[in-house]
Amino acid sequence: MTTFINLLTFSRIFLAALFFYYLMSPDGYLLALILFFLAGITDYFDGYLARKYNAVSQLGEILDPIADKILILFVLFGLAINLSSYLIGFIGAIIITREIWVGALRDLNARNGISDATKVTFLAKIKTSVSIIHSINIFIWISNKQYVNNCYSRYSIIHLTFYHFVYRLNLYFEYS
Questions:
Q1: C-alpha Rg value of the chain to the nearest Å
Q2: Under the phi-then-psi rule, with left for phi > 0, alpha for psi from -120 to 50, and beta for the rest, what region is 10?
Q3: pTM for this one?
C-alpha cells in the first residue's frame, strides 16, 4: 500500500507538469483545470490512505509537501505567464524563498536532533487546501475565453490571487 500511496504523490508532480503545458495552450484551459483537479484529489487521497492503512513512510512525509509546492508553483508561474502578471510571478518567488528557508530550518533541526520542530502541521494542510480551491476557481474563470479577454477580469484574477496570498500569510503568522 505504501508504494501505491507514494505513486499517488509522484503523480501529482507529473500532473503539475502536464497542467503547466496545457495552461500555456490557448485551447487547453479546460484540460488544465481537469488535471489540476485530479492533482488536488491525489493530494487528499495520499494522506487519507496513508493514515487509514497506517502506511505513512519517510519518503511520503518528505515528498508530499514537495509535490504540493511544485503543484502550486506551476499554477502561479503558469498564471503569471498566461496573464502577463508580474505580481503573480513575485508571489511565486516569495513562496520559493519561504520554502528555501523552511528547508534550511528543517536541515538545521535535523542536524541538531530536533526534527519534530518542523514537521508538517494541520495549518500547512489548510494552506494547501485553500490554494487548491482558489486555483480551481481561477481556472474555471479563465476557461471562459470571453471573460479572460476582458481587461477588468484579468486584473480581478490577479487581485484575487494577491488577496489569497495575503490571506495565507495571515494564517501563517496567526498560527505560528
A1: 17
A2: alpha
A3: 0.69
Predicted confidence (pLDDT) per residue in 21-43, tens digit = 998 887 888 888 889 889 989 98
- Give the C-alpha separation, 138 to 135, whole Å: 5
93: exposed, middle or buried (C-beta count within 10 Å: 0-12, 13-18, 19+)? middle
Phi and psi at 112, nearest 5°, equal -95, 5
The residue with cell 474563470 is 141
Q: At a CB cut-off of 8 Å and minimum separation 6, what does 109 contact?
A: 115, 117, 118
Closest CA to 137 of 43, 38, 62, 37: 37
Q: Chain centroid to CA 81: how far? A: 17
CA distance 153 to 58: 43
The full set of domains in the chain, from first to last, is 2-175 (1.20.120)
C-alpha span between 101 and 175 (Å, rounded)? 18
CB of 23 closer than 8 Å to CB of 135: no
Torsion of Cα atoms, 18 then 129 then 51 then 60, to 10°: 40
Crossing angle of helices 29-52 and 122-142, in 10° steps, is 160
